[in-house]
Amino acid sequence: MHTSSVRTSTRLLPDGTPLHNRLLAALPAADYRRIRPHLRMHTLATGRTLQEHGGAVTAVYFPNGGVFSVTNEMRDGALVEVATVGREGMLGIAVFLGNRSGVGRTFAQVPDGPFPSMSVRRFIKESASGPFHDIVARYAQANLLQIMQCTACNALHDVRSRCCRWLLQTQDRVESDEFLLKHDFLAIMLGVQRPTVTLVMGALQRSGLISSRYGRIRVLKRRLLEGEACECYQVIKEHFWRLGL
Asked: How is the chain split into domains, by residue range?
């Protein structure tokens, strides 16, 4: 994700919503016109599940402004986030790699209006070759690099710096200084207990970097927040920038 590389688009989704998803927005006009009739619009409330682990995947989704979390569930029911997806990507990238079963549980973390889907059958046909194939292939690579970086980050970096990274990434994805992000979800993102999140967020608020009230977070001093974040924030941004996403 790289905020300076956001592409403005005057294209509309089937329901008239402006298109913000960068993969669809990057398509040549003729390709998007061909694909658009096959898009179906959805809304999803915070915390609602979109795809279940191991379940049959019948559609892929293109976030248009919200943030979605892909998690791995342990035998004891504990959830740990393995990937975060916003308007820079898609949900169901495993289909592109030949897997039609759900990889992890995917739920809405920061919903932001309607977003489009495409049936798996149509997606496989459209992404078999041409510009759509090339765009999705670049995203698959960027997504893999993001997962690798986040795995290392969770093992090596402290909770405060990782929390700052997640807040910055969420702000980038929603393109707003203020967004809804519950402490329960942030705990899953960071792989810690909720009380730890409360302590870290309280410390950031006392430092004047953010304000947080009833799950609504506002970034007050972005530059200082970037200084507190671990190196992974910039590394992941550079991965997406280098791949043109």
From this structure: 3-152, 158-242
Mean pLDDT of 128-139: 97
- State whether the Cα torsion 233-234-239-245 is positive or negative: positive
Handedness of CA 198, 213, 44, 86 (dihedral sign): negative
Q: Quick check: helix, strand or coil at residue 17?
A: coil
Q: Which two tokens stand for residue 209?
A: 């970097």
**DSSP assigned state of 5:** G
pLDDT at 1: 53
Cα–Cα distance for residue pair 165/227, rounded to 1 Å? 10
Distances 245 to 28, 136, 190, 239 between C-alpha atoms, Å? 15, 10, 24, 9
3-152 adopts what CATH topology?
Jelly Rolls (2.60.120)
The pTM (predicted TM-score) of the whole model is 0.91
Which CATH fold would you assign to the domain 158-242?
A: Arc Repressor Mutant, subunit A (1.10.10)
What is d(CA 84, CA 64) in angstroms, rounded to the nearest whole number?
A: 14
